[in-house]
């Protein structure tokens, strides 16, 4: 399994404004606003209660009619963006040694 999928994630403390089809995250630290679509909001909310990516992947598969391969690829891409933008922190000792 891909290393990213083995990591655990902790959401950063951000202000949220979610509607039915789109939502916004506001970082008081940086002043940036991030827009999420419906799927992004769904995953963001799952990160509140689940740090295990397999659990999140299973929830995505329950909600959306897509293949596991596609769901996994899309989830990995979304998580990479969250990491890149500093919206989540990785919390996993076995992976921390691989990072610079």
TrEMBL record:
Q: Which Pfam families match?
A: PqqD
The protein's name is PqqD family protein
Q: Which Gene3D superfamilies does the UniProt entry name for this protein? A: Coenzyme PQQ synthesis protein D (PqqD)
Q: Which organism is it from?
A: Candidatus Methanodesulfokora washburnensis
């Amino acid at each position: 399994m891909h290393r990213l999928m083995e990591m655990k994630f902790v959401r950063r403390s951000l202000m949220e404004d979610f509607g039915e089809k789109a939502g916004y995250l506001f970082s008081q630290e940086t002043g940036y606003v991030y827009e999420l679509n419906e799927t992004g909001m769904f995953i963001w909310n799952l990160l509140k209660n689940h740090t295990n990516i397999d659990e999140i992947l299973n929830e995505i598969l329950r909600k959306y009619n897509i293949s596991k391969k596609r769901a996994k690829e899309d989830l990995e891409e979304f998580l990479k963006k969250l990491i890149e933008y500093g919206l989540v922190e990785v919390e996993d000792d076995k992976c921390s040694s691989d990072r610079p």
